[in-house]
Amino acid sequence: MVIKEILQENAQYYLQNKRELVGALLLIPPGSLCRRFPQRGGYWYLRQYAGGNARRELYLGPDGSALVESLRQKCGRRSQLLGDLAEARGALAILGHKEEADMKEDLNPVLAELIAALDEQGLWDLGLELVGSWCFKIYQNYCGVEFYPFRTLDVDLAVRLPYRGEKRDVGGLLKSLGFEEKFNVADGSISYSNGEITVEFLRARQGSGARGDKPQIPELGLAPVAVPYLDLILTNPLTLAIKGVGKVSVPHPAAFFFHKLLVAAVRREPGKREKDYRQVAAVAKALAMDEAMLAKANELYGQLPQAWRKRISQSLSKGRDLLGEAINPAEELWAFLAR
Predict the structure, then answer these.
(1) Which of 37, 72, 97 is the last residue of a domain?
(2) 261, 315 contact by CB (below 8 A)
(3) Which of 249, 336, 239 is nearest to 285 (CA)?
(4) Residue 67 shares a structural domain with residue 78
(5) Alpha-carbon Rg of the chain, whole angstroms?
(6) For residue 239, what are the domain limits?
């Protein structure tokens, strides 16, 4: 028994180490750094292979910017990180850990089962999205977002309205998976808990969110909570395939970036506010390193109402007060988009 516990502890150590190394490597995109326009102070670009004899250059930032300096340091560490990753994988193999089980472990077995069940019902295609912190975990595994630890037992699922799909009894599905329905008298919403995790459904708040806006969605058997700014992420989904689990829909990271900045500033709980800003900074780095995601961020920035842009600028100021230089990547991305 003692030997088994020791082996499990060692496996957890190397698994955590491997995740951190993979997260660090994902933030080092292929290509080489090059410096342009020294007469204007110097600007850095990432030169990448674009097929055939073509090359492309992605703007990173000016000399001395936190994003550029961070990338230069990480490029210098690539060989060391790859070596450390090989050692961690070798140790896990010796300990009998199967790499294909990583994602299921990351997601929590109950959540993995829920994602698979919703996929079987086609609900990701019909307007459901995994949002919140578990969505951020998906980004870490599939969108090049660096490792950032978090602990949460809440699973947030957003519903795009008006619902135009076939009738689905989502509440009944959750009950069949062992969840118990919980009615909130205050706002009429319904959540589901199995003693391990709690699933809450969200919808975009319309107007002022007056009580006349009924929360029930009879076609789905749900009563979601009304949340401001949610349309931003519901109208910009990203669908990904999780090996061994199924398909899942999450907000596009660019939409997540703007949405988190809008909600972080009005958070009442300091711990949740800090988590929002740290996730924003991590996602900003990944957006700046990916040409397609950066283009999407540019597109969404152009669609933001002027009032929302002002709120985001104010939110970034609050983020600096809270995190200091750790918020730099988000500030630099915002400045690039607003140029």
Answers:
(1) 97
(2) yes
(3) 336
(4) yes
(5) 22
(6) 106-251
